Amino acid sequence: MDELKIKAQQLFDQLKIEEKRKQIRTIEAEITHPNFWNDNVSASGKMKELARLQKQLEDAEMLELLIHDGTEEELKKLMDEMEVYLYLSGPYDRGCAIVSIHAGQGGADAMDWAHILYRMYTRLFERRGWKYEVLDETRGEEAGIKVVNIAVEGEFVYGYLRGERGVHRLVRLSPFNSDKLRHTSFALVDVLPQIEKIEGIELKDDDLEWDFYHASSHGGQNVQKVATAVRVTHKPSGIVVTCQTERSQGQNRENALKLLKAKLWAKYQEEQKEEEKIMRGAYRAPSWGNQIRSYVLHPYQMVKDLRTGVETSNTQGVLDGELDEFIDAEVKLE
């Protein structure tokens, strides 16, 4: 218990409580200003920041109380919950995210695997109480999905999910092969932060080319009478984004901008990294990235993360969204 209290005190000291109290007072003073809500985006951001700081302060005060008058179990449980403040301290970690899943090569098997991953992650979102919305989706001709982009809303969503970025490998008996042969499928998961303003990039209206067209279900049937689907091209970068999941053109337009900003941020980050590599003489062409996790359903049952070494034979639980063990290990690894 003494060793646990020492660690708890170190955690408490790292939280910089007085600094957080000053930040809270500053935001509370800004809220009283009559023009505070003139900029809704800025005001909403500050309200979320205030709520986050108040929660951290409440947790810190409870931690201090348990250090002096609490059981080992109570103290350890709170410390495990609070470690997130230390591990998820990046500039976008506490914000929302856009999760994209892309089927790899392999036809129907790969597209079915992408759909299984979609189900796995949406189950995770539901378990954590995060709201999500499909921004755009391209279905496979025979089964599954080719690509899907999902906006996920909640606190620390990006921080928790960014470690899921990479190639996911599935080994199973193919349900699309009459001989039921063992088949390996790949899918790429990408995780980007939702951001309002991109540092280093000015998004100008003149740089955007908008197209509006009729959305339809897969197979080209049930074409809508109103052109609600949206395509936006960012002319300087050549990035093209489409959205057609909503019935409203305005909502699809808003979702398209959300996705475009995330992709522009990712492109800008990649360019910065490549410039650094060139300067260091270690440039390598971008690729899909390394495989991060294997899901084996045949001839045995095993999910193993190749970075952290975390593994489990409960494959059904993982595919039902029980990813906490993997995600917690990834967060601490980074």
β-strand number: 11
Strand order of the largest sheet: 2-3-1-5-4-9-10-11
Question: Helices and strands, in N-to-C order?
Answer: HHHHHEHEEHEEEEEHEEEHH
Average predicted confidence as pLDDT:
85
Shape: flat
- CATH-derived architecture of the largest domain: 2-Layer Sandwich
How would you classify the helix and strand content by structural class?
alpha+beta
Query: What are the segments in which pLDDT stays under 50 over at least 5 consecutive residues?
Result: 218-224, 279-287
Explained architecture:
By secondary structure, the chain is an alpha+beta fold. It folds into three domains: 86 residues; 140 residues, 2-Layer Sandwich (Alpha-Beta Plaits); 76 residues, Double Stranded RNA Binding Domain (2-Layer Sandwich), CATH 3.30.160. It is built from ten helices and eleven strands. The strands form two sheets. It has an eight-stranded mixed β-sheet, with helices on both faces. A hairpin with a 5-residue loop joins strand 10 and strand 11. Helix 1 runs antiparallel to helix 3 and helix 1 runs parallel beside helix 4. The longest helix has 32 residues. 26% of the residues are buried.
